[in-house]
Prior knowledge:
This protein is about 35% helix and about 15% strand. With about 400 residues, the protein is of the alpha/beta class.
Amino acid sequence: MRLITQSSKLRGVRYDVRGPILQEAERLEREGHEILKLNIGNPAPFGFEAPPEIVEALRAALPSAQGYSDSRGILPAREAVARSYSEEGVMGVGPDDVLIGNGVSEMISLVLQALVDDGDEILVPAPDYPLWTAQVTLSGGRAVHYPCDETNGWMPDLAGIESLVTSRTKGIVLINPNNPTGAVYSAELVRGFAALAERHGLVLMADEIYERILYDGAVHEHAALHVHGTLCLTFSGLSKAQRVAGYRAGWVAASGDRSRARDFLEGLSLLANMRMCANVPAQHAIPVALAAETNWSGIAELCAPGGRLREQRDAAHGLLTAIPGVGCELPGGAMYLFPRLDPERYPITDDQAFVIDLLRATRVLVTNGRGFNLATPDHLRFVTLPRTEVLTEAIGRIAEYLDGIRVS
Length: 408
């Protein structure tokens, strides 16, 4: 009998955030072990509750949200997204420029399917949110990774990025604030990305899902403010700042020179039609979430001194950097730490195997750095969503384990 095998399109596609490491954690849980999970940025399981008015908006919409919506999304949601960008200075975005999806993840998939031909190249940061690399590959393209410099706060080098542009380059991905590093890019750097995209006629894809999760006075700069001569696609949603990841309420907004992108946008509309529509009840949460009276309720307080996200970031960073041979840039945004283990003290060659061994020994679940398309096996990603006492326990176990394997 012929074997049933996976599609060749999946060759080279990885998504380690939910891969073999998580599968091993689930096996241990089935055996009765309690796992301390520092692996996925899902706020709700850690006690971060959604603003009640958002929950009520979804509840109230249920009786009238039983059918398909417009494939682009319900008009009030699209109007709310367009209005929110206009209020932040992004001009010319109307409801017809907004596409609502089942989270940013679906929007990334649709955009790359509509944009990428076999052999096309997309410039993607290293490290990146691995869905970008996976979806470029699945679409038949090649993710060309531009490095971000850890010694410079994980900032990318624009000249280095430009040197990677070829005749096959179709777009460039900007993740700001970055996942997994938490780096927040300056207005000057964002302007540089926009200018680079315009010089080469590239689509600038700005993943801004963490735009409201900022610390220590960091300021987020919308890429769309600076793109005029090419197409800018801005991705965001309610999953992180509004703590409703399970609602799958995200969007992409097109701005810049859309006249040059009519054919692509028609293709994107075709793909949106083929999947019928996004989750309709959750779309009704978007106008409430973006309304002035809600105004991303509570996230600023969570990120301010004394707020849970800020205090947990600081506690975890202090505990990790107190471990001999562990260094970590203090992130200006998002909800992650990306520490480096000194390879002279911890000579790790296979970071996935290392993280699985760590999990088995400590019952602490983290993600390996190469799962985020980093070239070297010397980083881990920690989620800072658990309460401080959980982070203290987890990092204490890790410190003990590292002490046992450290090369003096």
